[in-house]
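hiii so my PI (J.) wants the whole complex modelled not just the main chain, which honestly fair. so below is everything: four entries, each one labled with what it is. i double checked the lines twice but i was tired so who knows lol
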Amino acid sequence: MPELGKYAGEVLSAYGISLALLAVLVAVSLARGRRVRAKLRAYEDRKGAR
Amino acid sequence: MIALLRRDLTLAVRAGGGFGLGLAFFLVVVILVPFAVGPDTEILARIAPGVLWLGALLACLLSLDRIFALDWEDGSMDLLATAPLPLEGVVAVKALSHWLTTGLPLTLAAPVLGVLLNLPTPGFAWLVLSLALGTPALSIIGAFGAALTVGLKRGGLLLSLLVLPLYVPTLIFGAEVARRGSEGLELGSPLAFLAGISLGVAALMPYAAAAALRVNLR
Amino acid sequence: MSQTVTAPAAVMAASGLACARGGIAVLDRIDLELAAGEALVLRGPNGVGKTTLLRTLAGLQPALAGRLAVDPEGVVYAGHLDGVKAMLTVTENLTFWARCFGTEPRETVARAVQAFDLDGLTDRAAGTLSAGQKRRLGLARLLVTGRAIWLLDEPTVSLDTASVALFAAVMRRHLAAGGAAILATHLDLGIPARSLDLSAFKARALIEHDDFNEAFL
Amino acid sequence: MSLWEYANPKRFMQISAAVLPWVAGFGGVCLAVGLIWGFFGTPEDYRQGATVKIMYLHVPAALLAINGWLMMLAASLIWLIRRHHVSALAARAAAPVGLTMTVIALVTGAIWGQPMWGTWWVWDPRLTSFLILGLFYLGYIALWEAIDDADTAADLTSVLCLVGSVFAILSRYAVLFWNQGLHQGASLSLDKEENVADVFYFPLLLCIAGFVLIFLALVLYRTRTEIRLRRLQALMARDRLL
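here's the output for the full assembly
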């Protein structure tokens, strides 16, 4: 851990918040992508079966 | 086009509500301000131009969704689109009638409310002038927002979200003119910018709004 | 009907027309021709695309494919909604549309009022009219526009027998004067008219079209 | 083969499937290296102390917040002119990513501004412009969500994006006029090398590359999702009609 001096709180919170925001964005994108892909696949399978 | 303007104005007068409501809202907002910031006349005098501008802007926002929604719901919009007058003209006329029924009364009422907020005497003329120049831009930009959201069920809130960021430049220059006017400062450049925005918006926005309407019609 | 179409040639011609609703083609390869003095009745079950075709012909939505030859300043469209303002009187409503379409309001309005038997109602606010009366007012608007080609979507909805007869009479006079009309209706109006069953034009093959949803099929 | 062939959804799906892991992987590596290097391996600035390290997040995020909007503008124009579906969907996919970047830039800026300027927030032209940009993103996203018909939504949001861009520039000038501001000049520009010292420069470049690649990967992935969603809607619509 580098010495951050009196600004440790600021620097760490900035990194924390930014990376958390990015992570949330990635997670939301992935979740939505999965859901849509599953739905499409299910629909196409159902049509194939008919 | 004159026929359309006349019809819209007649409708606004007969339906009541429309501009009476906007004016009342403006009045209430301005009256509430001293309760929020305290009765200190010096503070009120300082913030008066901004508060009056903001109040007028919000009052203008209230009736925006009615610009096209009424004609949309009863099918008149289909008929207007097939009528010989261009849709751009329809938009311009609708924005004009919106201004005549909200922007103009607000402009005229603003000095009266300025008294309540202790607006410095040299500010009155500039306040009225800035509103007279700026509120047409608000109506036209609002017409664009209304054209975007006309087909939507709960378009009202979305309309505000879309239109408010577009109002930023007009608000900045308009309020700046009013503020500088009340403080007796030089105000040529914001006034020129304000007039420029109104003119530019009046020239170009009807095209964007008509394009949005056409998309919504199909 | 101040304007009469003298040439016997087609006033409207469409070939290979395809129309879409919600981004999916519903009608395809429609060929139709309409001559002055002629009426064409669109038939077909609900949802087949009568409204879609009429809106396309009126120029309210672009065609997916095909050609459409018509003077856009010659058509007038009347849909499910009448475009009647409740706060205005019958005369005011009609006068407004007459001005909008650039016809002389005084005579056209009087004639339209008479044709649809609205005489007693001229000073009533349209909001106080019954559904059938409102519909008659909506149809009277057609006369006021002075346009030759009428595109009518279910014009007889909420009309009683007498009013339907009234409308049929107006229609006959319009055609006799050289006008033309395309109607989507299930009633037999007793006017000489060709009919076109749209079920025959139901889009079967998927048209490859860049512009629409089908790029994704 | 013309460039426009990539706008065919099927082709786009194929190509993006092949490219996506590489873009995402490289982006992740660049960002990780850049951030770690920046965080552990660079000295403190003589004036700003350790807060200079916030720059590695703030600058790339701010850069992408603006370029994200420019990308949406370009995609909207392509949709309006050439009517390529993928273009419209890419614009839709980029908006939430751009909004997140705007929020990161604002938040890191506020955290940095607290010790430096002594306040979380000042109505400085740059900050204010970013706030307005965030509002534009919000409105754009909200309009997409509100409209059911996909083509109508694409058309209307594109028009909004065009008009919004004009007003964003107008707002920028208006805001500059309104308040002259505290914000320092750009930390990085191609023609002025002396802006940032070399020690900070290379990790910063890596972070920017990482952010750009991750932005691209996210947009590609989200565009793929939008295409699938659109295909699902198209299939369902066809089944309803036929």
